[in-house]
Write a structure and sequence with these properties.
Blueprint lengths: L1 H19 L1 H43 L6 H11 L5 H15 L3 H14 L6 H14 L3 H14 L6 H14 L3 H14 L4 H16 L22
Helix pairs in contact: 2-3, 3-4, 4-5, 4-6, 5-6, 6-7, 6-8, 7-8, 8-9, 9-10
Length: about 230
């Protein structure tokens, strides 16, 4: 009985407190509800924007199969419109790649640089760094291209584009009559990708180097070489 009385007193105390502070409590409740709705709206809006961005990007990708008219412009527009969605950085990379294919290497490099600045933590940053080096390479800026490829290989070893960067770097070293570093890089590419097209090409380049510089490829001794020969007694 005493417990019931105590609970009743506590209830009326809380009720009296709420009556006195009815307006502040109502405001707090309203604010919490509004905040919850706002957070829900942001999540919904983000999901809707991701869907819209994905659909827009798919539309441009489909158009790529039928026309190459101003594709880079369409991708750049998408990259700006949906910069805060997952489609934004992909569109920016595609824009840079389209500019590269069109031979507009300066503009392509500008967009690859933009990706590096704005999306430095993105998993696709390796593609942008490779693109920067490729633009320098295509413009005949060999020393800068070597530095860019080398920086990518040294500082981002986990990127999926490392074999392509090593192959390009080896090709430039070979053109500069530096066969030893070229051989080392071609061997790395061949060992890591022996069954794909890049690995096969690296293997062929190694054979060409072997023909031109046989001293760089010492032949391992045969297991029977330098071993004493013993004759069985009859």
């Amino acid at each position: 009985m005493e417990t019931d009385v105590t609970e009743s007193i506590s209830f009326y105390k809380v009720w009296a407190w709420l009556e006195v502070r009815k307006k502040p409590v109502a405001w707090c409740a309203a604010i919490l509800v509004a905040l919850g709705l706002f957070i829900w709206f942001l999540i919904w809006q983000h999901d809707e924007k991701e869907i819209a961005a994905g659909q827009a990007l798919s539309g441009v990708l489909l158009a790529q199969n039928t026309t190459r008219s101003n594709l880079s412009g369409a991708y750049l527009k998408l990259a700006s419109t949906y910069s805060d969605s997952s489609a934004g950085p992909r569109a920016l990379l595609l824009a840079a790649g389209s500019l590269f294919i069109e031979g507009q290497y300066d503009q392509a490099k500008t967009q690859f640089d933009r990706f590096r600045r704005e999306y430095g933590d993105n998993p696709m940053v390796g593609e942008a760094l490779l693109g920067i080096a490729a633009c320098l390479d295509a413009q005949g800026k060999t020393d800068e291209a070597i530095a860019a490829y080398g920086d990518l290989v040294q500082r981002h070893p986990g990127q999926s584009v490392i074999p392509q960067a090593k192959f390009a770097l080896a090709r430039l070293f070979e053109a500069q009559n530096k066969p030893e570093p070229a051989r080392n890089l071609f061997e790395d590419v061949y060992r890591s990708n022996p069954y794909d097209s890049l690995g096969s090409e690296a293997g062929m380049r190694l054979e060409e180097l072997r023909m031109k510089y046989p001293a760089l490829f010492p032949t391992a001794p045969s297991p029977t070489n330098n071993m004493p020969i013993t004759l069985e007694k009859p």
